[in-house]
């Protein structure tokens, strides 16, 4: 039996937080637990940044420093080193989103290549991550996903996207760094999936370097995984898969309704949870072919993964199984799993303050809408403050 009260250990969870950091975290989660406050804060912050009002300092001292490692990769180093003292690895996440120009895609490429070099001599950084739309236009992925013929110019543009993926995966293979590729909106995802599969075919021959993302709020994903598994076996490559529930649920449902097609999202939370557990089960039964990065803040999913690992005699430090949480969230999961000897990594977002605002706003909104999670964070922070006072 695994210890099902593991995540109640707040001493281990917050071991790196000073009393004042603990207070700041409590204050922050208290603020973002209020939906109206988040709405007002979002509008006011966007306005202030556009109007060049001097709010950066305030943002940095509050949400930014809690959820991000810094404005550049060097800034993140102290955070990375600190986490690693407790056995938690880091995945630097260049969180600049919504760009659409070639030079911006090239900049993002240079950034990731630099991070891979950065990882080269740092044990604390075994993994990198990027978003497909960080390397190419959303509408280009969408056109390919919809099967619309590309113009000659677009074909050349797509080839540049392929080359960017290839450069990252090739260097990662050389340096033995794993690459996670994020999952995005369903109406552009097929093109990304095909491209990532091609990268797995090229670079996952004997060990897993390239990981795609399976968003299990989509009801079709388990079948997709099974068919990918068949192709991988017949062509002789390994699968890397980050499994998550998915971050774009409202957007997905709204679009399906507006355009009149069946929603790609599971009909309710329970169906998503069952789908997630199903994927976890399938992967852990097939670990010789599929490596997994379990990206979740859901405690039951983590306990289930621990239990299944035990059932299938998978050792805690097996490099084919990683747990991942976002920096600034669910430390009770990350630090307790790491203390037990599991492989754990935090996604550490970084970038200029105004560029990471969409990421920060998503975190704030997510914590508002997933009310249960915020109250869980608050109650854990409260217990730890109480424990320290005693
Ligand atoms: C390390 C890491 C990497 C990530 N990478 C990605 C990524 O590449 N792409 C991406 O999209 N997301 C990504 N995410 C975000 C992830 O999808 C969200 O954190 C996740 O949705 C929150 O779910 P949870 O597993 O933590 O658990 P929970 O809090 O238990 O689940 C909440 C999720 O369940 C689903 N859900 C909620 N209500 C319903 C409903 N009524 N019907 C159906 N489903 C419902 C939604 O997906 C919702 O977000 C990542 C998260 C982590 C921690």
TrEMBL record:
InterPro entries on file: FAD-linked_oxidoreductase-like, Proline_DH_dom, Proline_oxidase
Gene3D superfamilies attached to this UniProt entry: 3.20.20.220
Every Proline dehydrogenase domain range: 78-376
GO biological process: L-proline catabolic process to L-glutamate
A Pfam family: Pro_dh
Keyword tags: Oxidoreductase
Protein name in UniProt: L-proline dehydrogenase
Organism placement in taxonomy: Bacteria, Pseudomonadati, Bacteroidota, Flavobacteriia, Flavobacteriales
């Amino acid at each position: 039996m695994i210890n099902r009260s593991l995540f109640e250990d707040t001493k281990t969870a917050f071991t790196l937080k000073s009393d004042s950091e603990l207070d700041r975290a409590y204050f922050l989660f208290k603020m973002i637990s209020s939906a109206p406050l988040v709405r007002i804060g979002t509008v006011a912050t966007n306005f202030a940044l556009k109007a060049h009002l001097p709010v950066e300092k305030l943002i940095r001292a509050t949400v930014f420093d809690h959820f991000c490692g810094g404005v550049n990769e060097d800034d993140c180093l102290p955070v990375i080193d600190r986490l690693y003292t407790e056995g938690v690895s880091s995945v630097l996440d260049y969180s600049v989103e919504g760009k659409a120009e070639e030079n911006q895609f090239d900049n993002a490429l240079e950034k990731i290549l630099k991070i891979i070099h950065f990882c080269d001599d740092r044990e604390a950084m075994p993994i990198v991550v990027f978003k497909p739309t960080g390397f190419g236009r959303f509408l280009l992925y969408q056109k390919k996903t919809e099967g619309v013929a590309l113009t000659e110019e677009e074909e050349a543009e797509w080839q540049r996207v392929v080359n960017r993926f290839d450069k990252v995966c090739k260097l990662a293979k050389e340096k033995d760094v794993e690459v996670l590729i994020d999952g995005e909106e369903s109406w552009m995802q097929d093109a990304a999936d095909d491209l990532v599969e091609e990268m797995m075919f090229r670079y996952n021959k004997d060990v897993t370097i390239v990981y795609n993302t399976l968003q299990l709020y989509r009801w079709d994903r388990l079948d997709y995984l099974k068919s990918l598994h068949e192709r991988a076996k017949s062509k002789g490559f390994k699968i890397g898969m980050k499994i998550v529930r998915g971050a774009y649920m409202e957007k997905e449902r709204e679009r399906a309704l507006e355009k009149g097609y069946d929603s790609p999202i599971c009909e309710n939370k329970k169906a998503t949870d069952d789908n997630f557990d199903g994927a976890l089960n399938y992967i852990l039964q097939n670990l010789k072919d599929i490596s997994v990065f379990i990206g979740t803040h859901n405690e039951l999913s983590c306990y289930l993964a621990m239990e299944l690992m035990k059932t299938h005699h998978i050792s805690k430090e097996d490099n084919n199984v990683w747990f991942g949480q976002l920096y600034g969230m669910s430390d009770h999961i990350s630090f307790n799993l790491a203390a037990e000897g599991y492989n754990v990594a935090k996604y550490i977002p970084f970038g200029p303050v105004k560029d990471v605002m969409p990421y920060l706003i998503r975190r704030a909104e997510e914590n508002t809408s997933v009310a249960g999670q915020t109250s869980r964070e608050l109650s854990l922070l409260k217990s730890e403050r109480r424990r320290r006072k005693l």
